[in-house]
Amino acid sequence: MIACQLSAAETTTFAKIEQAWDMVWSRFYLPKVQTFGDYLSSYEKGKEQAHLPTADEVKRQYPNPCGYSTGMEDGAILGGAMLSVLCDRFEVTKDKSLREKAASVFAGLKRCVTVHGVKGFVARNVCPEDGTSTYINSSRDQVTHFVHGLWQYYHSPLAGEVTKEQIRAILADVAERMIAFVTPENDFDFCRSDGTRCPLGICRMWKVQSHEAARLPMIYAAAWDVTKNERYREQWRKYAAEAIEQSANPGENKPAYALLQMQCSLELLHALEPDLELKAQIHTHMLHVRDLAAKRFTSVLAQIAKKSPEEMQMLGPDWRTVPEWKNQKGYPNPQWGPFREIWHLTREVGESALILLMVDSPTLTNEQRSALQKLLGSFDYTHNASCGLIYHLAAYWKARRYCSFDWQSKPSAP
Questions:
Q1: What's the longest Cα–Cα distance across the chain?
Q2: Mean pLDDT, 10 residues at a time, over the chain (414 residues)?
Q3: Distance (Å, rounded) from C-alpha 228 to C-alpha 254?
Q4: How many Å apart are CA 387 and CA 76, to the nearest integer?
Q5: What is the dihedral angle through the alpha carbons of 21, 22, 23, 26, rounded to the nearest 10 degrees?
Q6: Computed from CA positions of residues 160, 162, 165, 170, in that sequence, does the dihedral angle turn out positive or negative?
Q7: Full set of structural domains in the chain with CATH
């Protein structure tokens, strides 16, 4: 059921978005572990993600402890983002079948944080072959989308009381890990699942860059919000003011994924902030992030326009066979070659469009609205191998939810 009456052009866009929806669930979703993979190496049914690591490879932490470039790198990020999509789509359509979809995505995220037996550690993904093996190195990016997605799900009509109780326990466990590990002695690192420091710096939660400063208080704020445990409120307030101050200037050239994660953390903090002055300051930062994303959106659209249809249809490789590998501080990382750019552009254009809508009373300019409709209405979703399709869905349903796409009417009552 579509809750807004759509024009002919908007109906065309919706048909393309439904195509993207079908591709995400039929090609990127991994039903054995209820998570999403990062890319496709084939369009042949049943072989789309044949490149995924085997259980033996994951247990050996091959090719690296992050699972970089294997297709198991961003499961927690994608699951959190997909929960947000489902919440927005439900608000527009009131489609009850989305409850089952959301429950499946939540189950996958729950698996990422429990299957390894390390309380509060958010694994990147879970190996579909055995349903239990994980890489030991996570990142603050994984935790950001994980927490943001669970928090949105908790507050949506899609989550029942049993699910909410599980979310309370999960977010409390994540917060407890941060309290225990994010200390000066650990250089504010939440560490790998084996308890050792991450050599890459991607698990550091404090004394970080501007676009990362709000992540730690955001986790504590979310845990407090769902549990009302004073322990987490104290941690949130301990970091909040300084984090907000540090978030003022994220830099002009950050990639869209970094800006999106910043906006996710600021969005949660803004929703919960009791101090009106700090709340206004957070929203000022969010508007700045939106403006940076607007430039990125225009830039990425121009880059995509230069690509041929054949280039945009490019499949990813079997990472085991690529000729070039880079050593990242002891982590051998297979390089995807030209596919990396296609994967990245597909993702960036959706991420940057989504950020535009993550402020109070979001609006799109006429140019942005036209550009987004043109993108979504002409994109070949049946022949694109990037998990970035999830962010195209996210931008579309966020626009539909807030009617910033200039729909013909406001959403009807359920």
A1: 60
A2: 56 93 98 98 98 98 98 98 98 97 98 98 98 98 98 98 98 98 98 97 98 98 98 98 97 95 98 98 98 98 98 98 97 98 98 97 92 96 98 97 55 34
A3: 35
A4: 13
A5: 130
A6: negative
A7: 28-402 (1.50.10)
